[in-house]
Amino acid sequence: MDNTEDSDTESVYVVRKALASVQNGDTDHYTQLIGMMYPKYSDIDAVAQLETLLKILSCSVAFIDVVHHRDLLSNIFTMSLWNHRPNVMDALVDLIISLAATSGKYLDLCLNMLISNFIPPPSVTPRKNQEVLPRVHAALHKISYLIPLAPSKLVPILAQRMPKIHIKGQDSLIVTLTYVDNLLKLENSPIGKVVGSMILMVVMERMRDLDLEIEWDDILQEDSNRGMFDMELEDAVESTMNEGDEFPVGALYQYTSDGNVVSELLDRLMVLSFKHLKSCKNSGRLDEVFEILFESFENYVLNTYKSKFSQFLMFYACSLDPENCGVKFASKLLEIYLSSNKPRLTRMSAVAYLASYLSRGKFLPPSFVASMLKRLVDECAEYCRTCNDDMKPKAHQVFYSGCQAILYVLCFHMRSILDIPRFQSQLTSLESILSHKLNPLMVCLPSVVSEFLKQSKAGGLFVVSEAFIFDDLQESELSRAFGGFERLDTFFPFDPCLLKMSNRE
Amino acid sequence: NWVWLVYWVLNLNPLLSRETKTLVVSSRRRRHLFQFIVLSSAPAQNCKSPVLLRCTASSLSELKKTKSRGIGSSMEGLKLSEAELMVYIHPSKSRNVFQAICRELSSLLFQYTETFDGVLLAYDATVKSKQAKILSGLHPYFGVRVNTRLLLFDPKPKSLVEGEIVKISPESIHVVVLGFSAAVVTDLDIREEFKFRVKDGEGCFVSRSHKRHALKLGTILRLQVQSFDEEVLHIAGSLLPENTGCVKWLEKHSEEVLPTDRDRKRRKLS
C-alpha cells in the first residue's frame, strides 16, 4: 500500500517538475509528456499511462501555465472522448472539470471541448453512444454546479456548434439527430432554465431550413381538386365531393437529388421533437415550453413562405394539451390577426394558420371553434360596416383572408355548428358580410367557396344565387389578386402531413 | 437586513441565471433607505438596438459592517451606489418606457460594468421626469433620465468574501460566492494550519491547532480575495490570513476571545 502511494507522489512530482521546467527552457520532459497523449487504442499499458497522466494533471492545474504549456493545453482540448476507453474518458472529464473550475480563462475552451463531443464520428456503436454522451452531460452539470454562470456561456457555443445543414450523405442524418437529441436532453435538465429557450429556437430554425430545402412546386402539380377537404390521407371525410382519392405520397421523396435524405432527416427530427414534447407534458413542463415554442414559431415559421411541415410541431404540442395549449395557440393567432400593428402579411398568414388549425384540430371542442369563428365574423362584419368600397382584392387583402378563413372553417364544421342552435345565431352577421359590396364570395378561392355553398345549401344555412357556381375552378384571377405574391389564398398549412413517420404520431 | 435577504435569495438557487422571475424583496427596517429592491432579469432579447448608458455617479455609500451574527456580516465586496443614468430607448418601445428601462438594466445583471465599477446584482430605478430628449439621426432614440440605486459586487484584492464550499480536493477548495461567483483557493494559498483529511469518505480540511475548526462540503467559508476575473466573475482566493476559515467557528471563537479582551482593557485602565 505504501509503495503505490509513494510511487504516486513520485509521479506527481515528476510531472509537476516537467511542467515547471518549461519556464526555464528545458522542454525534454515536457515533450515526453505530450508524446504520452497519443497511445494506440489496443496498447493497454500506454492507455493506463495516459490515464495516470490525466489524473495527475487534474491535481496539478495550478501548475499549468496558459502561455508556456500551450501545446499541452491544445492537445487536451482537441482530445475527443469518442476515441478512448471509459477509464481514460473519466480521467479526461475530471481534468476538464478541474480546468474549468480553477481558472476562468479555460472555461470557454472546456465547454467547447465538451460540446464538440455531441457530434459523433462516423460509424459509432450504440454502446459507445451510451459511454460518451452521459459523461458529457454529467460533466456539464458538474461544471454548472461549480460555476453557476457557466450555462449562460454555453448558449452561444451550442448555437455555433450546430452541424451545418449541407453535410452530404447519410452522415448528416446521424450527426444532426444526435446533436439535436442531446440539445433536447439539455433543455429538459436543470441547465435548461438558461439554455432552453435558445435550444428550442435553434431546433425550430433548423426544421424550417430543412423544410425550405424541400420543393413545394412538384407536389402542387400532382394536386388537383382531390384531397383538399379530406381529413386524413387515407380516409374520406363526411360530406366532401371527392372521396377516397389516394394522395401521391411516393412523389414526395423523388424531386431533388438528395431530397430523400433531407425529408428523412426532417421526418426524424420531428419525431424526436414530438418525443421531447411528450416527455415535457409528462413532467408538467409543457406550458412553459409552449410559450417559447410559440415565440420561435412566430419568429421563424409564421412568416416563412409556405412552410410545409415545421408547423406540425405546434400542432402536436396543442394536441397533447388541448384545453390549455390548444386554446392558447388559436387565441394567439387570432390576436395577431386582430392587431392592426402587425404587418399585413403576418396577419394574413396568421389567419390562414388559424383557419387550417381550427379545421384540422379534431381535439378542439366545437364550442371553442364556434367562439373563435364568432370573433372572426364580428371583426369582418365591423370591417364591412365601416367600408364603403367595391370589390377590390388588392386593397382589402386582410379582410378577404379573414373571410376565406371563416368559409374554410365552416366547410369542416358546418354540421357541428348547425347542430347547436346557439351557435347558429352567432353567425347571423355572416350573411351581412357575404352580401356586402366587397363581395367576398367572388374573391375567395373558388374551391373553398363552392364547397362552402354546397354545404350551406345542404345544411339550410342560406340559399345563394346561381352566380356562385365555379365549375371546379382551383383558383381565379380574383383570388390570386388577394392572395398576393405569396399566394396566401391557397395556403392551408395543417393539411395532412406528408412525412411518413411524423404523420403516424 | 436586506443585504442578507438578497444574499440569502441568491444562495437559494445555485444555478442562478438571468432567467429567474422577477422578485421583489422589501425591507421594513426604518434604518434602511430603500424599501424595495427589484431583482428582475428579463434579458433584453427583443430590444435589438444597443442602448447607451452614461453613468454620472453622484454618491457612493459603502455598507457598514453590521453587528449581526448573520451571514453577510463580513461581506466586504458589496456596495450600494446611487447613479443618475441616461437610458436611450428605441422608439418602438415608447408604449411602455419603464419596462424598456428595466429590460436594459436587466441585461446588465451579473455582468461586470466598468461604468458602475462592479457587477450589478440588483437595481431600483425611478424615472424622475417624463421629458426625454430625442436624438437626431437615423433612428430617433430618446434618452430618459433615470435615478437608480444599484447593488454592486466589487471584491477588491485583500477584501473578505464568504461563500459555500461546493468541492474539496487535496489541491483546492471550490466555493460559490453569492450564488453566482465561483471562487477557488488552491493548496498553495491554504495556510499550514489546515491539513487535508478524509472523513466518512469525504475530503475535508481540519485545523491542526483547533480540532473543531473543519472545512467540509457545505461549510460557509470566509476567504480573502487575491484577484477577481471580471470577464467570468471568478475569484481567486486565499486562506492564508488568520481571520479566514469557517465562518461559524470564527465567530464563535471571536466571541470567546472578546470577554478576555475587555478584562485586559479594564486591567490596563485601572
Descriptive terms for the model:
heterodimer, A: 505 residues, mainly alpha, elongated, B: 270 residues, alpha+beta, Dna Ligase, domain 1, OB fold (Dihydrolipoamide Acetyltransferase, E2P), 6-stranded antiparallel β-sheet, 5-stranded mixed barrel, 16% helix, disordered N terminus, Rpb7-like (chain B), transcription (chain B), signal (chain B), DNA-directed RNA polymerase (chain B)
Q: Look at the structure and give the CATH class of the domain at 159-254 in chain B.
A: Mainly Beta
Order of helical and strand elements of chain A: HHHHHHHHHHHHHHHHHHHHHHHH
Strand tally of chain A, please?
A: 0
H/E element string of chain B? HEEEEHEEEEEEEEEEEEEH
Distance between the termini of chain B: 39 Å
What fraction strand of chain B?
35-45%
In brief, what are we looking at here?
The complex is a heterodimer of chains A (505) and B (270). Chain A has 24 helices and no strands. Chain A is mostly helical and 505 residues long.
What does the model show?
Chain B: This is DNA-directed RNA polymerase subunit. The complex is a heterodimer of chains A (505) and B (270). Chain A has 505 residues and is mainly alpha-helical. Chain A has helices at residues 2-21, 28-35, 44-59, 70-78, 86-102, 107-116, 126-146, 150-160, 170-188, 192-213, 217-222, 259-282, 286-301, 312-320, 322-338, 344-360, 366-386, 397-419, 421-426, 428-434, 440-443, 446-459, 477-483, 500-504. Among the domains of chain B are: 51-58 and 75-154, Dna Ligase, domain 1 (2-Layer Sandwich), CATH 3.30.1490.120; 159-254, OB fold (Dihydrolipoamide Acetyltransferase, E2P). Chain B is built from three helices and 17 strands. In chain B, the strands form four sheets. In chain B, strands 3, 4, 5, 6, 7 and 8 form a six-stranded antiparallel beta sheet that branches. Chain B has helices at residues 2-12, 97-106, 247-269, and strands at residues 23-26, 36-39, 53-62, 78-89, 112-113, 118-127, 133-134, 142-153, 160-169, 172-177, 181-186, 194-199, 202-207, 214-215, 220-229, 234-238, 245-246. The radius of gyration of chain B is 22 Å and the shape is elongated.
